[in-house]
Amino acid sequence: MLAFNWYTFSELTVEQLYAALVLRSETFVVEQHCPYLDPDGNDVFARHVLGMEHNALVAYLRLFPPTDIEQYVVFGRVVTARSARTKGFGKQLIQALLTYCDTHFPGIRIQCSAQYYLKKFYEGFGFEAYGDVYEEDGIPHVAMCRE
Q1: Greatest distance between any 2 Cα atoms in the chain
Q2: Rounded Cα gap, residues 27 and 34, in angstroms
Q3: Taking 90 as the threshold, does the pLDDT of residue 144 lie above it?
Q4: How does pLDDT run across 100-127, given as a tens digit for each residue?
Q5: Where residue 42 falls among pLDDT bands split at 50, 70, 90?
Q6: Pairwise CA distance, residues 51 & 59, whole Å
Q7: What is the DSSP code string of 13-32?
Q8: Starting at the edge strand that comes first in sequence, how are the strands of the sheet with 128-136 ordered?
Q9: What is the pLDDT of residue 38?
Q10: Please, are residues 77 and 43 in contact by the beta-carbon 8 Å criterion?
Q11: Which of 11, 76, 80, 82 sits a CA distance of 20 to 30 A from 25?
């Protein structure tokens, strides 16, 4: 079982932020061969959940709370460390997300842009795909939401 803790950007320590950026880059830039600038300027507006095992970051995602303009939650940058895959940490991470949303944003729609191969994974948590499959950084994605 992982320990999950939520942070605003200003609450993250330098070490936590660095670990998150390293994990995201290892997976999304290096492993998936997508040369893009991961620190996109949006981290300051997000809430970040860090899944820790033995003082090491092994699971992460960021969440954008609803705003006056966008009346829904958006999450992304969902990642587990390569060394920690097949341990069920991805499921624990999404459950931590849903628990957080139920507590802080009850009844609010949750949306994400999911890599298409993970569609069934997210459906297992009540998400539904909508719209057409589209390419993002050369990887097929699908928009998903949970009411």
Answers
A1: 40
A2: 9
A3: yes
A4: 999 999 999 999 999 999 999 999 999 9
A5: very high
A6: 5
A7: -HHHHHHHHHHHIIIIIIIT
A8: 3-8, 47-53, 56-64, 73-80, 110-115, 139-146, 128-136
A9: 86
A10: no
A11: 11
Token pair, residue 45, equals 């507006």
Reading the block at residue 107, the tokens are: 């009844």
Which residues make Cβ contacts (< 8 Å) with residue 146, sequence separation at least 6? 98, 109, 110, 111, 125, 126, 127, 128
* Average confidence (pLDDT) over 76-86: 91
**CA–CA dist 27, 25 (Å, integer):** 5
- For residues 146 and 128, is the Cβ–Cβ distance under 8 A? yes
* Strand-pair category, 3-8 with 56-64: unpaired
**Is the torsion defined by CA of 125, 146, 95, 45 positive or negative?**
positive
> pTM of this prediction?
0.92
Cβ atoms of 85 and 104 closer than 8 Å = no
Q: What is the pLDDT of residue 31?
A: 87
What confidence score (pLDDT) does residue 58 get?
Answer: 96
Contact assessment for residue 7 and residue 50, using Cβ atoms and an 8 Å cutoff: yes
Radius of gyration of the chain (CA): 15
Pairing between strand 73-80 and 110-115? parallel
